[in-house]
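Support case: user asked for a sample of complex input and structure output to validate their parser. Sending the pair below.
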Amino acid sequence: MTTRVAVLGAQGRMGSTSVTALEAAEGLEVVAQVDVGDPIERVTEQEADVALVFTTPDVALEQVLWCVEQGVHVVVGTSGFDGDRLRAVREAVEQRTDVSVLVVPNFSIGAVLLMRFAATAAPFFESVEIIEMHHPAKVDAPSGTAVRTAELVAAARAEAGSDPVPDATTTDPEGARGAKVDGITVHAVRSRGFVASQEVLLGGEGEILSLRHDSSTRESFMPGVVTAVRHVADRPGVTVGLDAVLGLDA
Amino acid sequence: MTTRVAVLGAQGRMGSTSVTALEAAEGLEVVAQVDVGDPIERVTEQEADVALVFTTPDVALEQVLWCVEQGVHVVVGTSGFDGDRLRAVREAVEQRTDVSVLVVPNFSIGAVLLMRFAATAAPFFESVEIIEMHHPAKVDAPSGTAVRTAELVAAARAEAGSDPVPDATTTDPEGARGAKVDGITVHAVRSRGFVASQEVLLGGEGEILSLRHDSSTRESFMPGVVTAVRHVADRPGVTVGLDAVLGLDA
Amino acid sequence: MTTRVAVLGAQGRMGSTSVTALEAAEGLEVVAQVDVGDPIERVTEQEADVALVFTTPDVALEQVLWCVEQGVHVVVGTSGFDGDRLRAVREAVEQRTDVSVLVVPNFSIGAVLLMRFAATAAPFFESVEIIEMHHPAKVDAPSGTAVRTAELVAAARAEAGSDPVPDATTTDPEGARGAKVDGITVHAVRSRGFVASQEVLLGGEGEILSLRHDSSTRESFMPGVVTAVRHVADRPGVTVGLDAVLGLDA
Amino acid sequence: MTTRVAVLGAQGRMGSTSVTALEAAEGLEVVAQVDVGDPIERVTEQEADVALVFTTPDVALEQVLWCVEQGVHVVVGTSGFDGDRLRAVREAVEQRTDVSVLVVPNFSIGAVLLMRFAATAAPFFESVEIIEMHHPAKVDAPSGTAVRTAELVAAARAEAGSDPVPDATTTDPEGARGAKVDGITVHAVRSRGFVASQEVLLGGEGEILSLRHDSSTRESFMPGVVTAVRHVADRPGVTVGLDAVLGLDA
């Protein structure tokens, strides 16, 4: 059985790379490409099973709600799709319990695994610090992924009753790019030559465990996109995060 | 409640470091230290709950069997405690179902986590290679931990139906230190300055996930020793591997 | 004063990327682009000061000799331009002492610096090993750059009277991808996600110095191309290697 | 010819490790060990050629001046030996032009090479950032070595006329441990498991050159101590820094 996929925002950078990846994936077929000015009805005309949405947040909300109403499963790749938008989708899905919506803040399987591993390992080590490295055109520091990782690490330590990370620093008059997030120090490197990298350092007496992910091209998101589209229908209701479809919670 | 611990091989390097660590750990008390020439009866005279064994393989087997017979739980830290020795212990424990034996080939929690993470991540990446780095006095290559990691990675990929790791190499006339284990290439670095390090590189299109553990002192094994002693009694029968007592299989 | 540049092999990958980079560089102007089927006379008609050659080895030799005869300086970026070809150019330049030819086996300034630093540091450390990491479509192992680095390291140690690198390995039945080059072990990693990376590990008692270069795009060669074109005229005769024009030998 | 060495502060950590290392080194002999309460005259009674000083700054100054007056060459390993102390020694040496004094702020050859390499490479890359990693008991951030490295990098870039390091950050409300030193961002990691590590990241379009030094034991300083003692007599007058005796300025 082939899964029929519609891509919304098909001419954007993530959309067009996804079209190529989905067409190359076994068992998937791109039956509709919708971009600005195209009628969304193509999705149903072409009998798509799943809509993959990469449009801007406001357009995306409308499109997701329309797809849900039509009984089409949705993978949302639009950034910043949270808060009110997420609530609106949850309400809509309560009316259509046969429809699944998967909201994916980060399609990088490597980055998602790194976060999980960091949280799992965190209670076993005295110290944890995070270094994220991005291109120098990035305007915000630290990165959203690093903040999320720090939050997960801090939550895992809190649950395990870990002590605070030790730090005897008394003289640090200036500070550098980064932040302390829930007690976890995050360093933000900005340098030409990086696209998006993150390293979590976990330290104990006489040992360091370091978990690092380096991403250099948009192609690195494609296994995540394909996995999301393949498995969105398996999870009824609204799900947030790629983890849910990686089969890690056996 | 305090757990009373006897250390067998208490004057060896791991034994003596463990005595210090156990005495510093909350809820544990070292009540007997046994070394060459000392009567093993000290274990029961001092009413030890758990015996921690670091003696040589042949002595160790006798000691473990004696402890089991006496109803004392055992953590086995002796290297190379497998095959016939393990079978003999399993038989003995069948007669004493109230006793737990935990055999620990590697007390480094960091190394154990690294192996688990590598196996979990392996099916999500096209390529996996392992680099292990040890001091130049090591006589065998690759290291036992690296071989074990490669086996776990290969097994995880086989179960997931992963393709073989891609490799177009046609000219490689000489070869370097290391091996190909179940299809996974393991590189063995020998350099002054390393004690025991291992890095697993997982590569996909446009991304690398690297998991690395560096161990520089015997103290890095102590959290594993303490955890094993604390939790040995929770698992009836004979268990192999620290994983079982890390609480990772919720 | 603007330097007028002709690019030969202008439609190839390195050629076309170089045209873009040279046009963006201050003081340089691309006045001629020559590719298959185009007359080489464009170089002199457009009064080029420097010809940058990226054509195939056989075509390249003819073109370089013609440029030398015409009094045009040449930067040779064609791979494998050595042996007989280099000798032929040296002879030609003996007749035209006003012309400079710079043959560049590697335009990456980072890679060239890494090799120099490795050779400088090598005599100060007991151990040196090299890890090179490339994409899995590469057919030869180890990489030419790694072999060259190992040779430079070995030569520096020989000159300094260093002892052989210590290695107690007695059991290494299989071997992995790589080679031992002049006594220096080179490990060759092949994994999706790498383009061209190299790490030199220098180890002493209680310390590791690691020098690593990661290259992910052809753009990383452009500073080397621009520097070569800018400075080729400064060095009369035939010169091999980018080092010569980096101003490092004050 | 054997060089006769007196160690002042012989029972301190650096002093005692140095005594062992000097006795193992070819051509060197420890003829006097002086510590608190011992008469400094042992240095001359035992006809030492070189005094190696690891005492506290105030004691050290007196001892160095006494040695200079007696015609004994001095290697100063005492931390913080600069400013007025250095001036006093320079004045004393002007009266005894046959005596050499070598003040060594950092005996790690690896760390000294890293600083040199970073300064050499810095003008060839758009971006430079530094990450230093130390144990969590360190009270100051960033480390002195990292600050010195940043200063050398900044000076090399200024001399070469490099542009400022690019950085588009507009949102970085909190900051992390570290500092911006002469325009170079230094990140300070504090984690159990590190002793003293430093990494310099140099980034250009599509490439990263990373230079890293990890030091885990005091033994890593011994090659620097031995080299300083061996070569102090070669450089008349007062010299600061190990570089001068590494033979790098051919």
